[in-house]
Amino acid sequence: MELLRNKVINEGIVLEGNVLKVDSFLNHQMDPVLMKEIGREFTNRFAGEQITRVLTIESSGIAPGIMTALELNVPLIFARKQKSLTLTEDIYVETAYSYTKQQSNDITVSKKFMHPGDRVLIIDDFLANGEAAFALARIVQQAGAQVAGIGIVIEKSFQPGAKLLTDEGYRLESLVRIAGLADGQVQFAD
Ligand code: 5GP
C-alpha cells in the first residue's frame, strides 16, 4: 500500500527496542483518509472469506478495524485490556504479553458478541511476536468460531510473529512489511 508506505517513510520514528513510532497517523493522531484506504485494502484481500465479525484489541486496532468492518458491513468487536465492571459475568479471557508495555494483560470479550459459526477477521496495528494476534485467535476458538484471517497494518517481519502465525495455518495479510529497523532506518521487506 503506497500511501501507508509513504507515511511510514516520512513520519515513522525508530525508537529503542525495535519499536516504530507512528503516532502522527496511527497510534495517537489518526489519519482518516489512510484508515479508509486500509479498510478497503483489507476488504479486497479478504473478499470471499465470508467474514461475519471483525475482532481487534483496544486502542490502536480500533480505527483500522472499524473501517474494515464498515466496508465488510459486519460488526467490529474490540477486546478490552481490563476487565470492566459491566463485563463480569459472561466473558472470554486470554492473556497477552504486551510488546510495548512489557507486561501481561488480560484481554476480554463478552460472550454476547461472538458465537459458533462466526467467521472472524482479526485486525491489529502492528505484528511483532504475535502475542496479541494469538490471544485474539484463542478467544475466537473459545467461542467455537473460526479465524477467517489476520490483517496487520505494519508487520515487523524480522520478529517471530508472522512466521508463528503462518506456521499455525492462519492466513496473514500485512499491508507493509518491515525487514529491519537498524541504525534508525526503516528497511522494507518488499
Ligand atoms: P505482538 O503482540 O505481536 O508481540 O505485538 C503487537 C502489539 O504490540 C500491537 O498491538 C502493538 O500495539 C504493539 N507493538 C508491537 N510493536 C510495535 C511497534 O514497533 N510500534 C508500535 N507503535 N506498537 C507496537
Secondary-structure map with pairings?
Layout: H1 2-11, E1 13-15, E2 19-21, H2 32-45, E3 53-57, H3 62-72, E4 76-79, E5 91-98, E6 103-110, E7 119-127, H4 131-142, E8 146-156, H5 161-167, E9 172-180, E10 187-188
Parallel strand pairs: 3-4, 3-7, 7-8, 8-9
Antiparallel strand pairs: 1-2, 5-6, 9-10
The structure holds guanosine-5'-monophosphate.
Guanosine-5'-monophosphate (5GP) binds at residues 19-22, 27, 60, 99-100, 124-133, 156, 161.
Please tag this protein with its features.
PRTase-like; glycosyltransferase; transferase; 190 residues; PRTase_dom; 6-stranded mixed beta sheet; two-stranded antiparallel sheet; Rossmann fold; Pur/Pyrimidine_PRTase; 33% strand
